[in-house]
Specification:
CATH architecture of the largest domain: Sandwich
Distance between the termini: 156 Å
Order of helices and strands: HHEEHHHHHHHHHHHEEEEEEEEHHHHH
CATH superfamily of the largest domain: Jelly Rolls
CATH class of the largest domain: Mainly Beta
Number of domains: 4
Strand content: 5-15%
Strand order of the largest sheet: 3-10-5-8
Helix content: 55-70%
């Protein structure tokens, strides 16, 4: 270039770069350019995701800061960041690390077993070729087998292994397209290979099919239940709006990996394991309830088994003002609003978040409560809300075995009502609910029925005994009558005496 620059006029002097086509730079530049274009697409995708709204408890969120916070918390964000990292520069020339990562991946999958089987079979093929003689016929490895060693190809160790591995792969996968066997031993070897290939790869395909079926089994069962509900709504001509709400409710359950019925899922487990799972899931939540904070662990262990999960859709009312309180609610996920009325623009008194509890005092039947067992406000679900529900009957059934805890709960409930100025101090500590009165009546009727049944059984037994004694007396009377007839004769007896007059108890 210097020589060319010295010979040419100054205005014609220029610089030129010459790149060898065999150099690594010649091939790397186009791929680096394509990689940069892909990185630009990934960056644009990240920007779009930061501006894309998302559903939170069924409510569409459009706030940019909130969207960014949620996006950063997801695994997708981590994957997107990894996808735009300049690994081309970081890992350039470190091929060994890539090989190590590939080996680690193979060790974590069943692929290595397949490769090992193919490798062993390739070794047996070449061993048999050597025993029969390299190039002895068109099946074994050698010059006569044009597929293995075409003209102009050197017979190297790499060539021998690559072709043997290739032959083994085609044979075990039953693809074929290899030279056919010639000698008997070759036929036997190929037959065994084909049988092994059919069994091995049929097993692999079967396992893959089973895995896919198992993955879709839960979805199919869930879909069947949803289809059944759809058919019912179509048959009953349910409104389109209500039908859409039901379908969205099913979609929410599936997207959050929730079962329609926790009890049906856990019923296959023994009671001990069910109890341990329930304790692990619900125990700390139940301890947060004010009236249960000082209860003994045994009572809480029984109550956690009675908690039921319910899912409410956006706009659903969990309870309305004036309703009789029969349940206590614990917010597991979602948001609730305590509103003054059922109007859309009703005044909001409070917002209940995850972990909030309401309705606990209405299930204690505390006499003197100024609200009685009635709900004092409307509670509405903002989005999709998951609630744990404890039924009043379940609570009182458990309290029958814990009388001390029952007294403590009533005392604590009265304290909470007194604190909010909702307690009539002149009322007794405890009142019986209509349900409890009915239960007591049913129990009394059951006791009376038991006593009547016992008396009827005793009456029947007494009648049997009396009948047996009467039969004995009749037999003795018959014997006595025959004796009297033998002594005094039938005519006189029949004419002058009756059986009662002739009977003398001392004769018995």
């Amino acid at each position: 270039q210097q020589a060319a620059g010295a010979a040419a006029p100054p205005e014609e002097k220029n610089d030129r770069w010459i790149v060898d086509k065999s150099s690594d730079l010649y091939y790397r530049i186009p791929w680096m350019f394509i990689d940069l274009i892909a990185d630009g697409i990934y960056i644009a995708d990240i920007v779009m995701r930061c501006r894309t709204g998302f559903l939170e408890q069924g409510i569409l969120k459009r706030d940019g800061e909130r969207i960014l916070q949620m996006y950063i918390k997801t695994w997708q964000f981590r994957l997107d960041i990894i996808s735009i990292l300049p690994f081309d520069f970081i890992l350039h020339g470190i091929l060994r690390r890539r090989v190590d990562r590939a080996n680690d991946a193979l060790e974590r999958t069943e692929t290595r077993y397949i490769i090992i089987i193919i490798h062993w079979n390739a070794c047996f093929y070449f061993l048999l070729s050597e025993e029969l003689g390299i190039g002895s016929d068109t099946w074994v490895y050698g010059p006569r087998n044009k597929q293995s060693l075409p003209d102009g190809v050197n017979d190297t160790l790499v060539r021998r292994y690559v072709y043997s591995f290739y032959w083994s792969t085609l044979t075990l996968t039953t693809i074929g397209e290899v030279p056919g066997p010639v000698q008997n031993i070759e036929f036997v070897f190929v037959t065994c290979d084909l049988m092994c290939g059919v069994l091995i790869f049929a097993t692999i395909v079967g396992n893959v099919g089973s895995m896919i079926s198992n993955m879709s089994a839960a979805r199919a069962e869930f879909q069947n239940k949803m289809d059944g509900v759809k058919q019912y709504m179509a048959l009953r001509k349910v409104s389109k709006n209500l039908e859409d709400r039901v379908i969205k409710w099913f979609d929410y359950l599936w997207s959050n990996k929730q079962s329609l019925n926790d009890e049906s899922v856990l019923k296959v487990l023994p009671d001990k394991l069910q109890s341990e799972i329930a304790m692990h899931v619900h125990f700390e939540t139940l301890r947060k309830v004010r009236i249960f904070q000082e209860c003994e662990a045994g009572l809480l262990a029984e109550l956690v088994l009675k908690l039921q999960l319910q899912v409410f859709s956006p706009g659903d009312y969990i309870c309305r003002k004036g309703d009789i309180g029969r349940e206590m609610y614990i917010v597991k996920r979602g948001k609730l609003q305590v509103v003054a009325s059922e109007a859309e623009d009703a005044q909001i008194f409070a917002t209940l978040q995850e972990g909030s509890v309401f309705g606990e005092l209405s299930i204690l039947n505390i006499r003197g409560s100024k609200n009685g067992n009635r709900r004092t406000a409307n509670v509405r679900s903002v989005g999709y809300t998951d609630l744990f529900v404890l039924n009043k009957n379940d609570l009182w059934t458990a309290l029958k075995e814990y009388p001390d805890a029952r007294k403590m709960l009533l005392v604590k409930g009265r304290e909470l009502l007194r604190k909010d100025n909702l307690l009539d101090e002149n009322a007794p500590d405890e009142q019986a609910s209509p349900e409890e009165v009915v239960d007591d009546l049913l129990q009394s009727i059951s006791v009376l029925q038991t006593r009547v049944a016992r008396l009827m059984a005793e009456k029947t037994n007494t009648e049997v005994k009396l009948n047996a004694r009467i039969e004995i007396l009749e037999k003795e009377l018959e014997k006595y009558r025959k004796k009297r007839i033998a002594k005094i004769g039938e005519p006189r007896f029949a004419r002058s005496h009756t059986l009662a007059a002739d009977f003398d108890p001392t004769d018995l």
